C-alpha cells in the first residue's frame, strides 16, 4: 500500500517532538534530582560551643539555629544520595582552620557554611550568599536562587568576599546567611521548625541544581526548566584594611579571643553586617 507523504512527515515530526521532549524532561529531572552519588557535601554549622555567634545582647542564639538547619540539610541531601560530612554535629567549638581542612580533605566535594546574620539596626534583614573563588559562583547562584526565592525576606544578593573558610577552601565553597536574628520578624521565623526545614530544603535544592546554572556568557536572568540564572554579585573583596581586620575572615582574632568574650573566637559572622548596616 503506498505511503501518504503528508502523513509520513507528520508522523516523523511527532516522533521528533516526543524525542526532544523526553531529552528536555530528562535533563530537568537530572538537574533537580541530582543523585550526588560521587559528591561529598561538607556542611558547616556556624559557631558552636563557647562561640554563640551574633552580637552582644542578641536574644536568639545563632549557634543553635545553624546547627538545626545543618542537621535538617544533612537529612535532605542524604535522602538524595549525597555523601554528607558535618564539621560539627553537636554544640562544640570547631576552629576555622579545622573546618576548612575537613572540606579540603575530600577531592570531589563542595562546602556549605550555614549562618544567620545580625546587626545593630533591628530593621536590617534579608538573605545573603557569599563566595570567593570563581568556581564557587555557580553553587552560590543556585543556593541563593532557591533560598532567597523561597524566603519572605528581602534579597541582599550574592556577594564575593574573602572570609577565611571561603578563601582557604580548595573546593567550591559558599556561606549562606539565612536572615537576621536581630530582626524581630526574621528571628520569629527562624525559631519555627517549619521555617528551618524550609531553609534546609531550599539549600538542598540549590546543591542539587548547581550544575544547571546558566553560563556566564548568557544573559539569562530567568530560570527555565533546564537552567538556573547565574546571579549577579556584589564584590566586597576590596574593603579597607581596618574593616578587613574586623571581618569574619580574621582567623588570628578568632584564635586569640578568650572564652569569656561576649563575641567569642572563631566567629564567621556578624561584624561584616555591622559594617554594612552601621
- Beta fraction: 5-15%
Which outline best applies? Answer: globular
The second-level CATH architecture is 3-Layer(aba) Sandwich
In helices, the fraction of residues equals 40-55%
Low-confidence stretches: 5-33, 217-224, 241-278
| Count of the separate structural domains | 1
What features would you describe in this structure?
By secondary structure, the chain is α/β, with parallel strands linked by helices. It contains ten helices and seven strands. The protein has helices spanning 5-32, 62-79, 96-104, 137-150, 164-167, 184-190, 193-208, 241-246, 251-256, 271-277; strands at residues 40-45, 83-86, 109-117, 127-131, 155-160, 173-180, 233-235. The longest helix has 28 residues, at 5-32.
In short:
The chain is of the alpha/beta class. The protein has ten helices and seven strands.
Strand and helix layout:
Blueprint lengths: L4 H28 L7 E6 L16 H18 L3 E4 L9 H9 L4 E9 L9 E5 L5 H14 L4 E6 L3 H4 L5 E8 L3 H7 L2 H16 L24 E3 L5 H6 L4 H6 L14 H7 L1
Parallel strand pairs: 1-2, 1-3, 3-6, 4-5, 5-7
Antiparallel strand pairs: 4-6
Helix pairs in contact: 2-7, 4-7
Please name the defining characteristics of this protein:
Aminopeptidase; 278 residues; single chain; 15% strand; globular; 7-stranded mixed β-sheet
